[in-house]
Amino acid sequence: MTSKNVAKLVQDDPWESGELGRDEEHVAVATDSIEEQINDSLGLQPVSIRLQKTLIDEFKMIAKYHGIGYQPLMRQVLTRFAECEKKQILNQLLSEREKEAEA
Predict the structure, then answer these.
(1) Which residues neighbour 51 within 8 Å (Cβ) at sequence distance 6 or greater?
(2) CA-to-CA separations, 68 to 84, 87, 88, in angstroms, rounded
(3) CA nearest 17: which of 30, 28, 7, 2?
(4) What is the pLDDT of residues 43-88, one digit of tens each?
(5) C-beta atoms surrounding 73 within 10 Å
(6) How far apart are alpha carbons 43 and 79 in whole angstroms?
(7) What contacts 4, CB < 8 A, 6 or more positions away?
(8) Which pLDDT value is given to residue 23?
(9) 58, 70 contact by CB (below 8 A)
(10) Residue 34 to residue 57: CA distance in whole angstroms
């Protein structure tokens, strides 16, 4: 899904647009059980990481430009990086095995 598609989905979502409210009277903290169910259904694992404030600010600026939240943007960036690194490692291992087979 492109960032434009994500931005369109976010704009059309009544929660994201603020139609459902953005003040404290509309806020409720999810129970641990509900949060766990949400994470499980989405295949997410909460993590804690320390990042430079400037890096977070940069992600927020980029995310705002694309119309998404900065945490989903960070997930996208990490996913892309991991996929590319994994491919590079697998290609390297394949190349090494082919060289060994030729020898």
Answers:
(1) none
(2) 23, 27, 29
(3) 7
(4) 989 999 999 999 999 999 999 999 999 999 999 999 999 999 999 9
(5) 19
(6) 13
(7) none
(8) 77
(9) no
(10) 30
- Taking residue 10's Cβ as centre, other Cβ atoms within 10 Å add up to 16
Q: Do residues 60 and 70 lie in contact, with contact meaning Cβ atoms separated by under 8 Å?
A: yes
Tens of pLDDT, residues 86-95: 999 999 999 9
- The tokens of 66 are what? 């694309």
The three-state (H, E, C) secondary structure of the chain, written as one string = CCHHHHHHHHHHCHHHHCCCCCCHHHCCCCCHHHHHHHHHHHCCCCCCCCCCHHHHHHHHHHHHHHCCCHHHHHHHHHHHHHHHHHHHHHHHHHHHHHHHHHC
12-46 pLDDT tens trace: 777 777 777 777 777 788 898 988 998 899 898 99
